[in-house]
Amino acid sequence: MVLYSSCRIMYLGLILLLSSSWVLDRCEGFGEFGFEFHHRFSDQVVRALPGDGLPNRDSSKYYRVMAHRDRLIRGRRLASVDQSLVTFSDGNETVRVDALGFLHYANVSIGTPSDWFLVALDTGSDLFWLPCDCTNCVRELKAPGGSSLELNIYSPNVSSTSSKVPCNSSLCTRGDRCASPQSNCPYQIRYLSNGTSSTGVLVEDVLHLVSNDKSSKTIPARVTLGCGQVQTGVFHDGAAPNGLFGLGLEDISVPSVLAKEGIAANSFSMCFGTDGAGRISFGDKGSVDQRETPLNIRQPHPTYNITVTKISVGGNVGDLEFDAVFDSGTSFTYLTDAAYTLISESFNSLALDKRYQTTDSDLPFEYCYALSANKDSFQYPAVNLTMKGGSSYPVYHPLVVIPMKDTDVYCLAIMKIEEISIIGQNFMTGYRVVFDREKLVLGWKESDCYTGETSARTLPSNRSSASARPPTSSYEPEATNIPSQRSNTSTSSAYSISISLSLFFFSILAFFI
């Protein structure tokens, strides 16, 4: 009984941490609504959704698991192996990758009276759905120690602001399955992971948003969502146990509905911090000084597709045009052969440190380098993409640093792919990326996600000090075409209050546990 209560407190703590940003959002303009999200393996989310046997962060095993997770979630699997398991080179450990889920999570408030749901964010799908009047979905999670963590289940009958979506609605794509035009509109979404789906009926209800201005006004935004009565596949293993928040381009996605209702512009931004925390803002069309490139909207399944025209590594420019999808749900960047070869071979020719030679098959990256024994920081050639239209996109975090037994190793965090290239979260870190669906452009501007300034930011971390990882601020790009080093600055007072509240809560939590 005590263990169960502790888990409930832990879950409430995560809600406080994520929801505090709804009240403390910075003012950036009328009609913008934002909230904070966290990486799947940030300390905050792991407290509520523990990774089953996940290796230590920054280890080679961790990066191998994350790379395998990318392929599993996006349907790129090796047919000759068990798709859901990774066995490490020493043969002593395995991890169920399908249980690791999506990359970013946020708490959202739905209905009247409102309930909180810890949902996965996904720019690769459209529908926002919640577990609802379930016949086959996850009602609790097993937390460390064998205790259980109860999850909220949505019910239209309990919310006074809920209504069913009829089959004659323009948003109902399965009207042929209806007995009459007034019947409840059914839905079924199948995802790329084998046997993974959500099935139920469409409903309307209010999503409680808080404005990004000084008033912090609460807006009950009416949105369409899926009442997910049956979930299958990886949703049972923790991939999205409490719902999925689709951010795609179709009419049924939340950004589209908010625009149609006149609540926010048909645009949103996602900002990716170096600490695993980030922010999403609906209605954000960016700033006049942001860089932009056109979106390539292709039917029948539109994605956030752009065109790269040039690649520069250390000042050496290669003319190479290729399309790529900006996908916030993918950990690393995947490039087709020509682009991968150009970047990796150019990077290798300019690297100052020796190529790391190892038999460690757990390293998923091909180009890794050993930090010299007499160094505590390193230089690397700057990587810069030129987008269609001529705007430059400096990549601020192309590397990962991995402490090995004999030395620290840094790797170029890209991998080769046969299908279309994917710009993953690692290439977006340090930016506020704007998905402007009205102008059909993708915008970007350097940001620390909290002060709105172009400065580096470091949050307290629970990582062990035994990891001799060089600090991020010590990365010194060799080339001069990348912006100068960003100095650490204090965060906004609102953010400081948010962190203080969170630390205060967790100090109380520690006392009770």
UniProtKB/TrEMBL annotation:
GO terms for cellular component: plasma membrane; side of membrane. It is a lipid-anchor; GPI-anchor. GO terms for molecular function: aspartic-type endopeptidase activity. The active site is at residues 122, 327. It comes from the Eukaryota. Coiled coil: none annotated. Residues 1-29 form the signal peptide. Residues 452-490 are annotated as: Disordered. It is found in: Cell membrane. Residues 104-445 form the Peptidase A1 domain. Keywords: Aspartyl protease, Cell membrane, Glycoprotein, GPI-anchor, Hydrolase, Lipoprotein, Membrane, Protease, Signal. Residues 460-474 have a biased composition (Low complexity). PROSITE patterns: ASP_PROTEASE (PS00141), PEPTIDASE_A1 (PS51767). Gene3D superfamilies: Acid Proteases. One of its GO terms (biological process) is proteolysis. Pfam families: TAXi_C, TAXi_N. Belongs to the peptidase A1 family. This is Peptidase A1 domain-containing protein.
